[in-house]
Amino acid sequence: MTRKILVTGGTGFIGSHTCVELIAGGYQVLVLDNLSNSRETVLDAIEQISGARPGFIRGDIRDRALLDSIFKQHDIGAVIHFAGLKAVGESVARPLDYHDNNVAGTVTLLQAMQQAGVRSLVFSSSATVYGDPQQLPIPEDHPLSATNPYGHTKLVLEEIMGQLSRSEPGWRIALLRYFNPVGAHPSGLIGEAPQGVPNNLMPYVAQVASGQRERVQVFGQDYDTPDGTGVRDYIHVMDLAQGHVAALRYLQDNEPELLAVNLGTGRGYSVLEMIQAFARSSGRDIPYTIAPRRPGDIAACWADTRLAREKLGWTAVRDIQEMCDDAWRWQARQS
Ligand code: NAD
Ligand code: WQD
Which residue minimizes the CA distance to atom 43 of ligand 1? Predict the structure, then answer.
């Protein structure tokens, strides 16, 4: 019998796309999600796209008894752990919620894995662990720091996993440091569904294009970048999803290891370039105004992608136009 992959947070934005790629790769998928930031109907869409429906358990990663029963009842070969809270501003307002959900929740998951003897884990980390970059592109051995409670949870979790793998050498752990995930599945059936006002640039731009919001506020035009606006390494969520499958295969095929690896494209685009690309994809005018810098923002950030290529044999292949085309196809289906 094929062992299952437990995907925590599997109905969320990145998790749902990864489920599609896991199923395409021949894996059996079991999703655990408390639906705090997603809907169960995502499973219908995953089934429609891939022809297979992941198993689903509605529940919380902080529920140790539930985790123990999942590991007892299912033959789990590895865990891909997306579940967590991710809004930077909210983490500043409610730090304890972030430490409880992200840190305590992950520690509970690790304890349950340890007890069950499941020691393969792919973890959603973030380029936020690099803080304000001292060099570009950013290599994995760049110094780490956190500028907000959300980033701190990722940093602490990376450290906890380092301590764990040193104390028990059987662990196979991939810390995937995502840059800026955007886009959607090309079917338009799954995508990013933020609740309320989007915090991130691209979902906001998509809602302006669709007429739900009036104009984009561009946070700062006085950065030391070619057009003065912030530059980021936007990566298509389908490339990111394929990066997870590559990481899983790597862990399965190699000796136990703790690997921290960037998932980005290695190229940066400015806020204005992204707005223009989305205007091309949507055929809509996207009004914007220049606003003050957003506190805590950095000027520019893009990944050194060599380690992902060398170790995982993975590179991102989709460009920003494809990211915007796919995001628009998804957005246009939202009422
Ligand atoms: P998302 O909110 O769409 O998905 C997270 C999922 O986890 C949601 O479905 C939510 O309901 C679930 N969840 C949250 N807390 C839970 C808990 N305690 N128990 C069970 N389920 C829980 O977010 P996403 O964008 O798909 O992000 C996935 C992961 O990637 C997160 O850990 C996030 O921090 C990380 N990440 C995201 C980005 C990004 O920009 N989207 C960048 C870097 C890292
Ligand atoms: C991108 C650019 C903004 C909104 C955040 C988290 C990071 C990671 C990814 C999880 C910046 C500008 C934005 C708007 C704008 N998440 N902007 N108007 O800040 O790079 O990263 O999401 O790990 O931890 O910090 O992404 O999409 O918010 O911003 O001008 O309405 O767009 O200033 O230059 P960011 P973002």
Answer: 126
Q: Which domains are present in the chain?
A: 4-182+234-264 (3.40.50.720)
The residue annotated as part of the active site, out of 27, 98, 130, 150, is 150
Give the tokens for residue 114.
């340890």
269 is catalytic: no
Which residues contact residue 172 at a Cβ distance below 8 angstroms, ignoring those fewer than 6 apart?
A: 78, 119, 120, 121, 251, 252, 254, 256, 257
- What ligand is nearest to the CA atom of residue 123? 1
pLDDT single digits (tens) 28-75: 999 999 999 999 999 999 999 999 999 999 999 999 999 999 999 999
Alpha helices in 82-200 (DSSP H): 88-93, 95-98, 105-116, 149-167
Closest ligand (CA of 82):
1
- Quick one: pLDDT at residue 97? 98
Does any ligand 1 atom lie closer than 6 A to the CB of residue 101?
Answer: yes
pLDDT digits (tens, 9 = 90+) for 61-117: 999 999 999 999 999 999 999 999 999 999 999 999 999 999 999 999 999 999 999
